[in-house]
Amino acid sequence: METAVQKYTFKDFTSDQEVRWCPGCDDYVILRSMQKALPEMGVKREDVVFISGIGCSSRFPYYMNTYGMHSIHGRAPGIASGVKLANPNLSVWVMTGDGDAMAIGGNHFIHVLRRNIDLNIILFNNEIYGLTKGQFSPTSLVGQKTKSSPYGNTQPPFSPGELALGANARFFARIGGNVPKEMSQIFIEAHKFKGTSLVEVLQNCVIFNDGCFSKFTDKTVKADKQIFLEHGKPMIFGKERNKGLILNGLKLEVVTIGENGITQEDLLVHNAKVKDPTLHQMLVRLEYPIATGIIRSFDDVTLEERENALTEEVKANSKFTKTDDLFFSGETYEVK
Amino acid sequence: MNTAKTKQQPEVLEAVVIRFVGDSGDGMQLTGTQFSDTSAMFGNDIATFPNYPSEIRAPQGSLYGVSGFQVHIGSVEVSTPGDNLDLLVAMNPAGLKTNLYAVKSGHTIIVDSDAFTKKNLEKAQYKTNPLEDGSLDNYRVIEVSMTRLTKEALKNVEGLDNKSITRSKNMFSLGMVYWMYDRSIEHTIEFFNKKFKKKPQIIEANTKVLNAGYFYAETLELIPNSYTISPAKMEAGTYRIIMGNTATAWGLLAAAEKSGLELFLGSYPITPATDILHELVKHKHFGVKAFQAEDEIAGITSAIGASFAGDLAITTTSGPGLALKGEALGLAMMIELPLVVVDVQRGGPSTGLPTKTEQSDLLQAMYGRNGESPVIVIAASTPANCFDFAFEAAKLALEHMTPVVLLTDGYIANGSAPWKIKSISEMPEIKNNLVNQITENWHPYNRDEETLARNWAIPGTKGFEHRIGGLEKDSITGNISYEPENHEKMTKIRAEKVERVKNVIPKLKTEFADSGDLLVIGWGGTYGSLHSAVKQLSDNGYKNIGYAHFNYINPLPRNTKEILSKFKKLLFVN
């Protein structure tokens, strides 16, 4: 029955709905990166499902010519889990924002990561509530002035990556909102990963939090302020490619190649696939340079693999194949 | 077994109500279950109800730690576990104190006199010993030194610790009650042999104590004679004793098999609904996917996801859980996907009385969502018909593409009764609205002209890619639409869709009288009590009183008005 997947272009994944985001929003970049990544994944269009909650990010499914559900606040992980458990052949994507995923949906967010169901979560982090017009979110900074914190935000933020790793996320990547090519590549890697993959996109909100990530993501500073991590490659960055990371005691330290006898060999080599998340945690916390790329990609058994194995085992050992077998089993008696 | 004495002919009774009470941990549920199973196999109609504290194990001997099991057996139809007791078996003073009110004056109380110590009397807040102060003069009290006699019976059994010895005293009481009501102890011995296959001393100990109780009662002159309850007139067939929650789970299994869909349950543990999860999770051999979610909301949303992907999706809960599910239930209604929500009602509001019953979620089920969001609401009324209504809930959800709330309650969910086993071949067909062949101009909100059910295109089906969501949608394309006229139209369609279920559900019938002076009306789990009450009146010559019971609540049966108008007065009992 399996037929070869037809060759798609991004147009095949573009729906007939008019896209309604603010001009200049990074969401357009995410949308286009996804539409360009999907043809590369070798997945049939009818097998792709986008599930979202509420918020600007959550309009995403309407713009994809696939199956999709725009659901309710924070609950996309629950719905996506049901979709995937019902039909493990599907490629399931959760499109969510920082408020949707980490405030109202915080509980579902951590539990879906813990379980490791094979689905992908794209977290649009803009450190603000956009759709409700400018209140602080769980990733807003202390002191940040917003509609609901006119004198400055007093609630310390979550770091999505730290929260995710704390919940035992096996795959975590971070990417700027203005680099479509790298973003597409990360989406493809997230798709390939068997387990829950989380991609945090540092997404600029032009209206309510403009420039929130510009000190890392602006084209002029990006090379010096970001380290793009690749598995098996040395942790090197900078316009001159002469800066890198070493481990000094229990801290990551920025060094310059050529200074104090440091050579490229002294730099840490990125291992995304290691089970111990200690170094991944450090990388996630790093403020300078900010770590992007695939920080963690640890292969583990998925929930549906466990469930399927158990089901097969129970089926093999059971004498029940239909409900009548159950109903008439055990203690029954006849009335004549 | 040698029974040297010639047995007197037992006196024949129509029905009796017996309650076993003791500490949680005294094995009262097991004792009651054994007595009711034995009676059912003997041919009696039965109804049982367990009553236990919400603490896992309350302090021994305390008033709030009393656990009980009530059984009503009859040669006549039995529709409730009964109100007034013919026999109370109390294993300690706290059990006596909290249950004495229910014993009919002049009737029998069996107590373990060894448990009436100073300490236990204090714990039960007795100032004087009720066995000595004359306060039980209106009853026939049988004091039995059960703890001592149990120890005596087991003194030659090797390898038993003190705890196991005292624990088996419940079997002494069961043995006595078996003799009193002329029941065979064989079924219970068989049960020991099966249950404790790997622990021969436990089989030996329990069997010995059960026998000891039986023969003690036979020898004891305090019990003048034994009674019996003849087999009831029941429809021929194969039966089993079933609890309401098990019946609900099995009805859902049957619906999955009949519809050819896989069963998905998304649920979060809550009393008294959890047993449905416990039951369904066992049946992986039928491909059941039972997902214990992180909370009530994930319970229902995972089910909505599974429904979107083509499974028969269920979520189970109790009152406070339904409150949490409200928003997601509104979504399921809005996107018009099939979903069964089982609400096993308990005492409320808020956390309320988790292990006690109240039938108080009707309005929540009907209206507990924002906006105008009609769903089908049906209610089971007996432990056994939980099977039929769970099946019916799934059938209506699938055939009409809408959520269905099935209301049961702690009373019928934990109660048990004989169930005439239904083979899958006896169950009605279940159609579904799945589409797999693209038609010209296909839209996700194309509807069946008769039922108004929209078609069900599931991910993985080529050519039907579409997006749904909680925002109002255009009545044809399903795209987002905020047009006032469209919203009005969609609101009406959704209401009409539920209303048209009237056309397929059975008409309302009355019992005892078709017309007359008074119609008593009930719904859900109160059936047994109300039916019995009106039956009593009818038996006493009040032939102008009818009884109408609603299992279908939204929509109401199509002849409701007609039926109600045939009576001068209506009495709605809730």
Automatic annotation (TrEMBL), chain A:
Cited Gene3D superfamilies: 3.40.50.970
Keyword Oxidoreductase found: yes
GO molecular function, one term: oxidoreductase activity, acting on the aldehyde or oxo group of donors, iron-sulfur protein as acceptor
SUPFAM superfamilies assigned to the protein according to its UniProt record, in alphabetical order: Thiamin diphosphate-binding fold (THDP-binding)
Domain Thiamine pyrophosphate enzyme TPP-binding: 54-201
Assigned keywords, A-Z: Oxidoreductase
Record GO biological process: cellular respiration; small molecule metabolic process
Pfam families in the cross-refs: TPP_enzyme_C
InterPro entries per record: 2-oxoacid:Fd_oxidoreductase (IPR051457), THDP-binding (IPR029061), TPP_enzyme_TPP-bd (IPR011766)
The keyword Oxidoreductase belongs to this UniProt entry's keyword annotation: yes
PANTHER family with a match to the protein in the record: 2-OXOGLUTARATE OXIDOREDUCTASE SUBUNIT KORB (PTHR48084:SF4), 2-OXOGLUTARATE OXIDOREDUCTASE SUBUNIT KORB-RELATED (PTHR48084)
Identification of the protein by name: 2-oxoacid:ferredoxin oxidoreductase subunit beta
Organism of derivation: Lutibacter profundi
